[in-house]
């Protein structure tokens, strides 16, 4: 496993992140403690060092499992969790990004995880009803108190993240060093605004669902997914099936698996991207981790890109179409 810093921070994290959303059997199909222990050990043996969870995963069981599993080796891992999602649906202040929920959520997560600090504390989702100033100041207070080392944000528009970090820069608060977003061959939306923003601001990108909800794992390619699969074959679109077939064809040609091809593709898109790999069994995780050693040939990358091409939309397509007319002889190509 290779390591890179998370965005502009000095925090060294492995190129693949372990997602603990499946840790626990509450709320649906998940993994029991024995299987979770095997997965964590396997990840550590492979050189992985960053773990991602959230206060609401498995109704809190994910954090509780990690608290037990990390006992005695907490310092060997970069531990991150998220807040925003409601802790109590009967309490209007038990959700959102305001100071009150942040404080209560943070204390809850620290207690479950059996630690006195978090390496990364993530805003789980943009809360339109809480001023950004309040969220950023409250996060900075948590950093100043030593309970949080770095902060990041998940599932938010690019303009929100940009404004938040501008506020942090102006006022001397802790900026977001990471951005967590969905990214896969099936969902490339972040290439419009979010990924260019992250590259411009120097944000590390932790990509969730690199297998497109399991569609790119290979189990749907033949139309007969294994029991426990989240999606029925008939719920997938023609595009989903077409992309899955191309990924499977590439995997067959390279002598690897669909999951490894899909994860490796996300990694080659930008040096800032760290895929989050989750699994329900140690065997699934072992297969996913092997993607770290897979180098896709340039022609293969081009083939995958073409199979999943999408329109950037306005204003990007418009700017590209009119650039020669607007700039004339001043039009120059990008460097690199």
TrEMBL record:
<keyword id="KW-0560">Oxidoreductase</keyword>
<feature type="domain" description="NADP-dependent oxidoreductase">
    <location>
        <begin position="15"/>
        <end position="307"/>
    </location>
</feature>
<protein>
    <submittedName>
        <fullName>Aryl-alcohol dehydrogenase-like predicted oxidoreductase</fullName>
    </submittedName>
</protein>
<dbReference type="GO" id="GO:0016491">
    <property type="term" value="F:oxidoreductase activity"/>
</dbReference>
<dbReference type="InterPro" id="IPR023210">
    <property type="entry name" value="NADP_OxRdtase_dom"/>
</dbReference>
<dbReference type="Pfam" id="PF00248">
    <property type="entry name" value="Aldo_ket_red"/>
</dbReference>
<dbReference type="InterPro" id="IPR050523">
    <property type="entry name" value="AKR_Detox_Biosynth"/>
</dbReference>
<dbReference type="InterPro" id="IPR036812">
    <property type="entry name" value="NAD(P)_OxRdtase_dom_sf"/>
</dbReference>
<dbReference type="GO" id="GO:0005829">
    <property type="term" value="C:cytosol"/>
</dbReference>
């Amino acid at each position: 496993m290779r390591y890179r810093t998370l965005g502009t921070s000095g925090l060294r994290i492995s190129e693949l992140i372990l997602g603990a959303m499946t840790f626990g059997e509450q709320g649906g199909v998940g993994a029991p403690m024995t299987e979770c222990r095997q997965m964590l050990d396997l990840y550590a043996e492979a050189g992985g060092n960053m773990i991602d969870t959230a206060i609401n995963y498995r109704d809190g069981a994910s954090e509780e499992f990690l608290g037990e599993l990390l006992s005695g080796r907490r310092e060997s891992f970069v531990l991150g969790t998220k807040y925003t999602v409601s802790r109590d649906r009967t309490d209007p202040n038990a959700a959102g990004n305001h100071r009150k929920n942040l404080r209560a959520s943070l204390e809850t997560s620290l207690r479950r995880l059996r630690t006195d600090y978090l390496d990364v504390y993530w805003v789980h989702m943009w809360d339109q009803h809480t001023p950004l100033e309040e969220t950023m100041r409250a996060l900075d207070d948590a950093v100043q108190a030593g309970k949080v080392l770095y902060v990041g944000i998940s599932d938010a528009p690019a303009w929100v993240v940009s404004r938040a970090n501008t506020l942090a820069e102006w006022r001397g608060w802790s900026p977001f060093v990471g951005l967590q977003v969905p990214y896969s061959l099936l969902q490339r939306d972040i290439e419009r605004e979010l990924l260019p923003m992250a590259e411009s601001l120097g944000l590390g990108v932790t990509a969730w669902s690199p297998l497109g909800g399991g569609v790119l794992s290979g189990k749907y390619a033949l139309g007969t997914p294994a029991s426990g699969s989240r999606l029925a074959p008939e719920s997938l679109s023609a595009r989903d099936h077409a992309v899955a077939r191309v990924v499977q064809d590439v995997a067959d040609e390279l002598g690897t698996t669909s999951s490894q091809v899909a994860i490796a593709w996300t990694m080659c898109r930008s040096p800032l991207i760290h895929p989050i790999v989750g699994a329900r069994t140690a065997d699934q995780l072992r297969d996913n981790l092997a993607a770290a050693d897979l180098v896709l040939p340039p022609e293969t990358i081009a083939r995958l890109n073409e199979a999943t091409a999408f329109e950037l939309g306005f204003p990007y397509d418009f700017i590209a179409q009119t650039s020669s007319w607007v700039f004339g002889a001043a039009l120059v190509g990008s460097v690199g």
